[in-house]
Amino acid sequence: MGRYLLPMISVLFSTWSAVGDPAGSAHVDGAPPSKIAVVGAGIGGSATAHFLRQHFGPEVQVDVFEKGEVGGRLATVTVNHHDYESGGSIIHSLNLHMQEFVKVLGLKYRRSVAGKTAVFNGEEVILEETDWYLLDLFRLWWRYGISFIRLQMWVEEIMEKFMRIYKYQAHGYAFSSVEQLLESLGGSGFINMTRRPLSDSLLELGVSQRFIDEVIAPVMRVNYGQNVSIPAFVGAVSLAGAQNNLWAVEGGNKLVCSGLLKMANANLHQAQVSSISPIYSGEALQYRLSFTTSAGPRSEMYDIVVLATPLQASVQSGVEFQDFTPPFDELAGSYHSTVATIVHGYLNTSVFGFPDPRLFPFASILTTDTPHLFFNSVASVCPVNISAGFRRKQPQEAGIYKVFSPQPLDKSQLKTLFRSYYSVQVTEWQAYPRYGSSLGLPPVELHPNLYYLNGIEWAGSAMEMSSVAAKNIALLAYHRWNRQTDMVDQSDLMHRIKTEL
């Protein structure tokens, strides 16, 4: 189970059509853009600024607007002078963009601290990790037959196809929509996976219902706060950590965002963007961004704008689209609210069938999709800075725990999970799209030179998915500006790349 269960916890639509002719989006004199705006400084926005700098060169001015903290959903909270991840926590070893960011920024991998995982059904622990890998493997086979092997082969096949994106992007190819990107990697199969439930795909694969209920559902609950009715491609992204090759950044994952902005020499504006308007001067098109800083309201003109923030009504981005023809409506769909509660206290291990906390062997507990359970997971967490002598607190000691739940925990629920506690810090995230409705995938191009990054989350939400989208948009913006249509939405790319070599 060390390879098959524990890592799975980690790899934590209405359509606007593009308006106008993208091929006519460059300045008539062929001059490079002078100013580019990126709205949002999470991993998607900061990676976009970095890639834009790479492709457009040192002369273009890159302005990044962020109304909150740099890092977005990569964030930390402080308990007893130590920082802990309250948002996106763990990265998979195949996340090549994130790996490259850490390398070029001179950041370090956080030392991992071993810990066992169990699954709780509301009454008892039904699945648990041991110290013996072969015993875990035997238990999985005894309880689920070859379901876990079928799952492993399915995820590996999907990941092998998805890894093609790095070759395509290294050769400069871009895609004008999420559908085009997915189709280039996995054909119609990937597109279909965004439209059918994970449970249906796994049952068709021969995975047992029991395995889905007891292993897959707990992973979906901890990663997305939702059940196995989420689309199959989202589920595959969530399960992509099945090899246990997981890591995080020493000092906090949000350091990647601030580091990328600095390396991009981007101008960071702590500001709320209120509106975007197209401004035409002859055939040339620019955008007026109106925004509010601590000094008051301002506006600036930009040649290219990238929106790296969700535009659904539930997130309340505050951005209005003015004077567009035809007018823009808000994107359909909503984001799922997930509550992360960081508790400094004594875990009530008797809830899980261990009256003596000294006998409780688990660092994290996942839960099945049981109606009366008020939490999705509870885990002992380590600080973002781990010293050489660090050890995880024993269950009988006061430790730091992260609880994921669909709603804020009330006092009675906290008292159920903890014998006593010193502090409670609550972060309520609009964390992921609310999956399951057949809204389609949002567009990448909203208007000539106006791009939307977060649509990729509706195919799969993860740090690396945002990084892939950032690279794609930087390439797409560059090719659109320079009228390089042969680098966008090309078919049979694997063959093209081989002939280029």
TrEMBL record:
Keyword flag Signal: yes
GO biological process: prenylated protein catabolic process; prenylcysteine catabolic process
Originating species: Sphaeramia orbicularis
Family: Belongs to the prenylcysteine oxidase family.
Keywords of the record: FAD, Flavoprotein, Glycoprotein, Oxidoreductase, Signal
Signal peptide (UniProt feature, chain positions): 1-20
Keyword Transmembrane helix appears in the UniProt entry: no
Cofactor(s) the protein needs: FAD
Gene3D superfamilies attached to this UniProt entry: FAD/NAD(P)-binding domain
Residue stretches in coiled coil: none
Protein name per Swiss-Prot or TrEMBL: Prenylcysteine lyase domain-containing protein
InterPro entries: FAD/NAD-bd_sf, Prenylcys_lyase, Prenylcysteine_Oxase1
All copies of domain Prenylcysteine lyase, residue ranges: 127-490
GO molecular function, one term: prenylcysteine oxidase activity
